[in-house]
DNA sequence: GCCCGGAGCGC
DNA sequence: AGGCGCTCCGGGC
């Protein structure tokens, strides 16, 4: 039962691609070793409808079905053709707008309709087919492609529309041992392109992989094909590569171009990396060299210096293959589950993915779909800080998958979910996550297993967020509130238990606790014992795990701390201590302060500070050290409008962008620095682009940057006595020996939580009382 | 000095 | 194109 709920009710195996053929047909491709077989399916486009009166004017043929249950969308309406469905939508739009005060522009504004706008997705939902059932990852045929281009001297990049630019080489590799470099024997660019099209069609790959595949490789090839009057026909039906239109695209969300190839899947490695990056925050930009360095992938030829462009192209393919073998398996596993093609699985937010799982089952079982509840605020996790200071021998424990566990424990499914898809699918995805996690623990060299379990973890964590998602069809704010409430209670119980055993709880957040074990329990086994005790004292479904143990722990504020690990590395958390848009000198200063405090290297810190101060005062630094980089979040016209209407404050990055008169897009980054001589200048009135800074005539605002320096160091005032602090952060020479007497301070903060918990069963527990 | 909203974090 | 909680910042008053 769960099996078909999660994997879809259609057992069709080895589907590797699909595309519509006619307005009412979908063709699927099924892998057979070195070939594919195609099967055509009838397809009836559909949407959900609240009320049949909206169909009164529609004269074409349609099929209606009254659905089970009392949810808002009572009917499913199906059509013979995709175009009929859209005609009907337009009809409904007209009718709706006649009677409604608020005009609907597109189907998205129609509250009486639920429509999935993509026909492949609709087909997969209707048929219960998913990709890659019962096919080994190696059986899927994957082609890698990269290109080398001429850059006209004096230009930064190659432009396919420029006469003097062109493709020089195209490298092709696959996961079955094929390798080719086009451009070595082919005389002309035209010949290269024709050969490329031939090879792709002959190899017949299921997936095409590349670095910047859409915006660079395909865009470039397509443009050159047009120039040479060649059809870039690599579709499984011999159709051309198509640009995917985004009809509903607003000016604010300028999406980059995406292409599609009939029956094949395009995988851009950069999309995979973007999925990998956000929590890790490693890449500012995705140039292949930076990425290769991060993954310690060695090119035989140095991309910077080699003149062998052809070989370099092949090596790029090896890297693409390497990255895909790391990250693609997760999406292949997900494509077995969700009614989406692999490309969409990478693109789509996880809330959307799990919702499609629900919708598929509701279509299959012919049940009415709910409309979203109107949004309202819910409570969140419990966060608290008990101590500020530096502590030795700190442990971190957390509750494994707390929210999903609570949902399953208390059966907290949305009240609108008649057929229990929410709980049932969560149960199965959670089981799969454990499965992949265990597989990884058994085969630690198979890193891709780690990424699969990580992505499944994200999926199961999405279930909680979905309940409070304003656009979620099955959202349920009461249930969401219940979950956070239960989570808060459990966390407080854990805190209480540790405190009552005379452990020192330092800081807690949502589902985890940093603490120093009781004095007598410093050995590892004793901590295990403590964890076991806490576990016994909680509901049996709740699993507490040791998340880490640390040599030293620096507690700063709620959600802001740093740890010194046993391998001597330092890890810093929290927006007050690390932030992307701090100036580099500030970042380095804070890192040094934390590292030196954790290691008690106070003299070294003093020297570092003195040198930095000296550098600032004497302009002995570089623009990279003090510029700030900000990302434009809004288009400039919106910023200007908002300023005019007094709806937002001025901002240096936007002011500079406007002043430059250049074209700026959302997502562009502006690097700037502050000028003038007063420390309290308004940045937006005294700023310049980073590239305007001239080291021979430095005009950065020294007073301003010294003020920032003091602000950063002041964060660490709390850890020292007044005298010690001013000794360390002093610009005059201090005696080295005098630093030996420096002692770090700790401070108890925050209120007691103990009194909030009634523990009648355990009256013998000692209670820590606040000193306040 | 206080208040506000946005950004950037943590979970 | 899940959620909330916390801190910092710049700017306006």
Description:
- The chain has four domains: 2-134, DNA Polymerase, Chain A, domain 1 (2-Layer Sandwich); 137-329, Ribonuclease H-like superfamily/Ribonuclease H (Nucleotidyltransferase, domain 5), CATH 3.30.420.10; 380-415 and 476-600 and 744-772, Alpha-Beta Complex (Palm domain of DNA polymerase), CATH 3.90.1600; 619-741, B family DNA polymerase, thumb domain (Topoisomerase I, Chain A, domain 4, Orthogonal Bundle).
- The protein is built from 22 helices and 25 strands.
- α6 packs across α8 (309-335) and α16 runs parallel beside α21.
- Strands 15, 16, 17, 18, 19, 20, 21 and 25 form an eight-stranded antiparallel sheet that branches. A five-stranded mixed sheet has the order 10-9-8-11-14, sandwiched between helices. A four-stranded antiparallel sheet has the order 5-6-4-7.
- With 772 residues, the chain is of the alpha+beta class.
- It is globular.
- The structure holds a DNA duplex (11 and 13 nucleotides).
Please tally the β strands and state the result: 25
| SS strand fraction | 15-25%
Counting helices, strands and paired strands, the structural category is alpha+beta
Helix content: 25-40%
State the domain count: 4
> What is the overall shape?
globular
Known CATH architecture of the largest domain: 2-Layer Sandwich
CA distance, first residue to last residue: 58 Å
Kindly report the CATH topology of the largest domain: Nucleotidyltransferase, domain 5
In the CATH scheme, the class of the largest domain would be: Alpha Beta
**Helical stretch count?**
22
- Name given to the CATH homologous superfamily of the largest domain: Ribonuclease H-like superfamily/Ribonuclease H
Query: What would the average pLDDT be, to the nearest integer?
Result: 90
């Amino acid at each position: 039962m769960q099996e078909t709920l999660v994997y879809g009710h259609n057992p069709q195996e080895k589907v590797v691609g699909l595309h519509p053929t006619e307005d009412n047909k979908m063709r699927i491709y099924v892998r057979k070793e070195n070939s594919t077989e195609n099967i055509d399916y009838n397809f009836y486009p559909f949407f959900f409808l609240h009320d049949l009166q909206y169909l009164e004017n529609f004269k074409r043929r349609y099929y209606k079905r009254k659905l089970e249950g009392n949810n808002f969308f009572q009917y499913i309406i199906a059509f013979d053709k995709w175009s009929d469905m859209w005609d009907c939508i337009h009809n409904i739009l007209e009718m709706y707008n006649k009677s409604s005060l608020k005009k609907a522009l597109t189907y998205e504004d129609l509250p009486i309709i639920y429509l999935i706008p993509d026909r492949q997705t609709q087909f997969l939902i209707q048929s219960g087919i998913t990709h890659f059932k019962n096919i080994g990852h190696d059986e899927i045929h994957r082609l890698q492609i990269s290109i080398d281009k001429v850059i006209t001297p004096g230009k930064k990049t190659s432009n396919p529309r420029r006469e003097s630019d062109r493709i020089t080489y195209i490298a092709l590799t696959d996961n079955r041992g094929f390798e080719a470099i086009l451009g070595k024997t082919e005389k002309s660019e035209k010949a290269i392109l024709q050969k490329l099209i031939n090879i792709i069609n002959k190899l017949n790959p299921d997936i095409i992989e590349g670095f910047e595949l859409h915006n660079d490789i395909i865009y470039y090839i397509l443009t050159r094909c047009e120039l040479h009057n060649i059809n870039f026909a690599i579709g499984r039906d011999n159709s051309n590569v198509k640009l995917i239109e985004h009809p509903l695209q607003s000016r604010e969300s300028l999406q980059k171009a995406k292409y599609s190839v009939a029956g094949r899947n395009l995988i851009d490695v950069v999309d995979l990396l973007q999925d990998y990056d956000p929590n890790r925050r490693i890449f500012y930009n995705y140039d292949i060299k930076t990425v290769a360095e991060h993954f310690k992938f060695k090119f035989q030829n140095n991309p910077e210096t080699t003149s062998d462009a052809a070989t370099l192209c092949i090596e790029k393919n090896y890297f693409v293959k390497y990255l895909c073998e790391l990250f693609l398996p997760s999406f292949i596993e997900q494509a077995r589950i969700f009614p989406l093609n692999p490309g969409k699985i990478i693109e789509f937010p996880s809330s959307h993915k799990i919702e499609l799982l629900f919708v598929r089952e509701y279509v299959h079982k012919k049940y009415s779909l709910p409309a979203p509840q109107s949004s309202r605020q819910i409570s969140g996790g419990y966060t608290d800080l008990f101590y500020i200071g530096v502590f030795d021998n700190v442990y971190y424990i957390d509750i494994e998958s707390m929210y999903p566990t609570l949902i399953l424990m208390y059966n907290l499914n949305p009240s609108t979910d008649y057929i229990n898809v929410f709980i049932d699918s969560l149960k199965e995805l959670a089981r799969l996550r454990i499965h992949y996690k265990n597989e990884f623990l058994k085969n630690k060299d198979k890193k891709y297993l780690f990424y699969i379990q990580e992505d499944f973890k994200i999926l199961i964590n999405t279930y909680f967020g979905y309940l409070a998602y304003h656009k979620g069809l099955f959202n349920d704010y009461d249930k969401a509130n219940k979950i956070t409430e239960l989570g808060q209670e459990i966390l407080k119980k854990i805190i209480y238990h540790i405190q009552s055993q005379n452990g020192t709880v330092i800081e807690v957040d949502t589902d985890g606790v940093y603490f120093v074990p009781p004095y007598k329990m410093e050995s590892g086994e004793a901590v295990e014992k403590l964890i076991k005790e806490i576990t016994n004292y909680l509901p049996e479904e709740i699993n507490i795990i040791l998340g880490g143990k640390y040599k030293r722990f620096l507690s700063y504020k709620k959600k802001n701390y740093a740890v010194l690990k046993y391998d001597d590395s330092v890890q810093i958390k929290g927006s007050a201590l690390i932030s992307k848009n701090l100036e580099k000198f500030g970042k380095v200063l804070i890192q040094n302060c934390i590292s030196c405090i954790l290691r008690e290297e106070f003299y070294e810190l003093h020297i570092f500070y003195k040198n930095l101060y000296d550098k600032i005062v004497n302009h002995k630094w570089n623009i990279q050290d003090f510029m700030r980089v900000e990302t434009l979040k809004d288009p400039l016209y919106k910023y200007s409008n908002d300023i005019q209407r007094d709806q937002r404050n001025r901002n240096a990055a936007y002011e500079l962008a406007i002043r430059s008169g250049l074209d700026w897009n959302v997502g562009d980054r502006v690097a700037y620095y502050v000028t003038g001589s007063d420390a309290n200048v308004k940045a937006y009135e005294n700023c310049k682009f980073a590239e305007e800074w001239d080291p021979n005539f430095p005009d950065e605002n020294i007073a301003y940057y010294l003020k920032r320096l003091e602000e950063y160091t002041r964060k660490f005032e709390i850890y020292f006595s007044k005298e010690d602090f001013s000794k360390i952060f002093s610009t005059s020479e201090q005696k080295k020996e005098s630093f030996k007497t420096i002692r770090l301070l700790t401070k108890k903060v925050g209120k007691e939580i103990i009194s909030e918990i009634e523990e009648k069963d355990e009256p013998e527990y000692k209670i820590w009382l606040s000193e306040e």
